[in-house]
Amino acid sequence: MDFIEENAAQLTYNLTGDSTSMLIADLNGFSLTKHSCIGCIPFYLNFVRHHELHYPYSLYKLYGINAPAVVLPIIRLVTPLMTESTRDAFHIFGYDREEFGKRLCETIAPENLPFRYGGTKTAKLGKDKMKLLAVN
């Protein structure tokens, strides 16, 4: 899985001033054999449990784009462990760039979103760089 702009993070702040996070995960290349193996499922479950226990309400949005159909059963497996606010933050899209691009541009200014994800940005970040963008 390739995360948008080689793991670029998007940060925003909720009304109380606590930091929350937004993640865009490009799930193109997700493989049932690689990413849903016997060792992977407990990792996903423990990750969600840990997140909900220690960081409840910290996820603003999680966009999964270019998601193959095999991703959905895994999402269904872990969503019962999530709070309602975390479940509401999940937005999973298939390969329709126009569909997910429109939704992403509702939250992220098009000039800050790479063209391949529905925005107008053409410059690339280096693999070892992390860019923080203010989301209004």
Helical percent range? 25-40%
Beta-strand percent range:
15-25%
Number of helices: 6
Mean pLDDT across all amino acids: 78
What general outline do the C-alpha atoms trace?
globular
Instruction: Kindly provide the radius of gyration, computed on alpha-carbon positions and rounded to a whole number of angstroms.
Output: 15 Å
The SS-based structural class is alpha/beta
What characterizes the major β-sheet?
Answer: 6 strands, mixed
For the record, give the distance between the C-alpha atoms at the N and C termini, rounded to a whole number: 27 Å
Low-confidence region ranges: 1-16, 127-136
How does this structure look, described?
- Helix content is 35%, strand content 19%.
- The chain is built from 6 helices and 6 strands.
- The chain has helices spanning 4-7, 32-35, 40-54, 71-78, 84-89, 97-107; strands spanning 2-3, 10-13, 19-26, 59-65, 90-92, 133-134.
- Strands 1, 2, 3, 4, 5 and 6 form a 6-stranded mixed β-sheet that branches.
- Residues 1-16 and 127-136 have low confidence and may be disordered.
Write out key terms for the chains shown.
disordered C terminus; six-stranded mixed beta sheet; alpha/beta; single chain; 136 residues; disordered N terminus
Topology:
Layout: E1 2-3, H1 4-7, E2 10-13, E3 19-26, H2 32-35, H3 40-54, E4 59-65, H4 71-78, H5 84-89, E5 90-92, H6 97-107, E6 133-134
Outline:
By secondary structure, this protein is α/β, with parallel strands linked by helices. It has helices spanning 4-7, 32-35, 40-54, 71-78, 84-89, 97-107, and strands at 2-3, 10-13, 19-26, 59-65, 90-92, 133-134. The longest helix has 15 residues, at 40-54.
